[in-house]
């Protein structure tokens, strides 16, 4: 099992530095065979592929192993003719739009059985179970919101799996808002609107991820409005996920917002320590890895941000121990995670501006510009506040960045946000979400 963990991490790292063509030609067919005395053994389909990879990618692979914490990065290539495709336990998040069978877009790991219920998500979980038991009848739509990597997609897919096995005749469609938008644009361009409408209006369960991205997209909102109505009136189930509640999705047409509020709105919060430990244990069990309890506790204490990072950290510890030929212990975990948590991010003002603009569904030039519309003023103040907090920029520099404003304007904005943060839990949550986006 461990070699898959390591290889998946290596691939994730390598992908950032090579082209898709290189990746698909040389890396997709490599199979991790095992780790023997700290040496990662990799299976390649032909000796030609082996030689090519050795000649051109040795450094790339070694660098990835170093990054994973291997003291001496070593790997060996073995020719495995016919190279059987193994079951991928790391089935990546589904890529909507790439498959023709909507059910295959559901990630097989994202089931109710694999979902740990804690105080942070029990309401959302209960609502999802109720919907899975009687789609279209319990809560419609079900609107799940919460920060990055906290399990919204997992819960949606879990409903999909459960409905698929209980009611095999029902048609299920999972789609991200981005894909919905892209498909809509394509349908308009290719004059295929009838097909597009038929497809989305004939489903029994529609799962739409990241609906906050519909903000500011008028045509998509219009089309989604009609899809929503058609399904709702026919008693079909709709589940929506978002990083914020409907009332905080600015530039969302009022008629859509009110529809999103018709059913049940439920949130997922960050998990507390016990739930984080339980999630780590479940993950290890799912992947067949044995780890001492104190290591779970250690990881759960240092990684508090989100569950995706929690899982990533567990995998890093497993990979680190295996590559260095040591048993997993608390000390080893601390070493494996040390550089991850030492590095404090330094952001560029542009990056922060972009994250704030995206969050509020605005353009960056609107944030920088002179507009005094209510919807722009607060986001602009938030951007100034975050730039001050997360960069070394001085007040005059920030003023300059915002189209040459005076530093007193920046100071005023920062004070406004500071004051508001004292008792505005909504704003506190929004700032947390933006920081999470920055990573
Ligand atoms: N309660 C849970 N129990 C077990 N695993 C969980 C739980 N919540 C989240 N996870 C895992 O955490 C990872 C991130 O979850 P998911 O992708 O559903 O988050 P998300 O809220 O949809 O994030 P994003 O906002 O980035 O779309 C997944 O691997 C998921 O299986």
From TrEMBL:
ATP binds at residues 149, 151-153. InterPro entries: AAA+_ATPase, Chromosome_initiator_DnaA, Chromosome_initiator_DnaA-like, Chromosome_initiator_DnaA_CS, DnaA_C, DnaA_dom, DnaA_N_dom, DnaA_N_sf. Residues 322-439 are annotated as: Domain IV, binds dsDNA. One of its GO terms (cellular component) is cytoplasm. CDD domains: AAA, Bac_DnaA_C. Residues 1-89 are annotated as: Domain I, interacts with DnaA modulators. PROSITE patterns: DNAA (PS01008). Residues 105-321 are annotated as: Domain III, AAA+ region. Transmembrane segments: none annotated. SMART domains: AAA (SM00382), Bac_DnaA_C (SM00760). Keywords: ATP-binding, Cytoplasm, DNA replication, DNA-binding, Lipid-binding, Nucleotide-binding. GO terms for molecular function: ATP binding; DNA replication origin binding; lipid binding. Residues 348-417 form the Chromosomal replication initiator DnaA C-terminal domain. Its main location: cytoplasm. It is found in: Cytoplasm. GO terms for biological process: DNA replication initiation; regulation of DNA replication. Residues 138-266 form the AAA+ ATPase domain. The keyword ATP-binding applies. Pfam families: Bac_DnaA, Bac_DnaA_C, DnaA_N. Domain I is involved in oligomerization and binding regulators, domain II is flexibile and of varying length in different bacteria, domain III forms the AAA+ region, while domain IV binds dsDNA. Belongs to the DnaA family. Oligomerizes as a right-handed, spiral filament on DNA at oriC. Plays an essential role in the initiation and regulation of chromosomal replication. ATP-DnaA binds to the origin of replication (oriC) to initiate formation of the DNA replication initiation complex once per cell cycle. Binds the DnaA box (a 9 base pair repeat at the origin) and separates the double-stranded (ds)DNA. Forms a right-handed helical filament on oriC DNA; dsDNA binds to the exterior of the filament while single-stranded (ss)DNA is stabiized in the filament's interior. NCBIfam families: DnaA (TIGR00362). This is Chromosomal replication initiator protein DnaA. It comes from Calidithermus roseus. The lineage of its organism: Bacteria, Thermotogati, Deinococcota, Deinococci, Thermales. The gene is dnaA_1.
